[in-house]
Design goal:
Length: 240
């Protein structure tokens, strides 16, 4: 049996990225990183509800006040779904990772950075769509949300590429080809979220929001991979 590398003082093998003796690269299991990441997701998704507050109202006007806050409900549901989908993707990713090294930990932090930003464009979106704001402000709010989502796609492309090139970090039975195939997903997100932002700016903020919602559904359907989950039943694809 070949012993799995779990020590310091290793360097990638020139052919397949396996560690060998040489430079100081710490290899560890995924437990602490997963626990920390799940904690971040839990905190961020909880913070969203803080934007839902009891409305100011005259006696007898509570229902009208609650209905007046509909933009906050829409923004909350959209971002709750988005963070939930990101967590599903993150969970699916780590089911295929057996070990962590320092670069991979930094890439994971970059993914989490994108997650913790979400409450900000969510609050802007909810506030801007409230009564009294101009259509131009709504365009800015939708474009801001779309840009945040587009930028968030970048570290996912990096992590898929890194794991493809460092197969010794993967769980046994996981092929680097799986991560090579997944690289198209964040690129698709980067481009299409950008298009959603342009749609919200030049055509209609509501259409831009609908475009963002469709992209979130796309990432939900493909959370297990392009050839796995619901898409595998539709296309007859196999696991990479």
């Amino acid at each position: 049996m070949v012993e799995r590398p779990d020590h310091e003082g290793v360097q990638p093998h020139p052919e397949d990225g396996r560690p060998g003796s040489g430079t100081d690269i710490r290899i560890s299991d995924t437990g602490r990183v997963e626990a920390f990441s799940d904690g971040v997701f839990a905190i961020v998704i909880t913070l969203l509800v803080l934007e839902l507050t009891s409305p100011e109202h005259e006696p007898g006007g509570l229902l009208a006040g609650l209905l007046h806050q509909w933009p906050s409900y829409v923004a909350f549901l959209l971002s709750f779904l988005y963070i939930g989908v990101l967590w599903l993707n993150h969970h699916a990713l780590f089911r295929r990772i057996g070990r962590m090294d320092a670069p991979l930990r930094w890439i994971n932090l970059a993914i989490l950075l994108g997650v913790v930003i979400i409450p900000f464009p969510t609050a802007v979106l909810a506030d801007t769509f409230a009564e009294g704001h101009s259509v131009r402000d709504e365009r800015v709010a939708v474009t801001l949300y779309a840009l945040a989502a587009a930028v968030m796609s970048a570290p996912w492309w990096v992590v898929f590429t890194y794991l493809r090139d460092h197969p010794y970090l993967l769980e046994p039975g996981t092929s680097p080809a799986y991560f090579h195939a997944q690289r198209v997903r964040p690129l698709t997100g980067l481009v299409l979220y950008g298009i959603c932002g342009l749609t919200g700016w030049f055509i209609s903020p509501v259409v831009g929001l609908a475009c963002i919602a469709i992209m979130i559904i796309y990432h939900a359907v493909t959370s297990e991979g392009l050839r796995e989950g619901p898409l595998s039943r539709l296309s007859g694809g196999r696991r990479a």
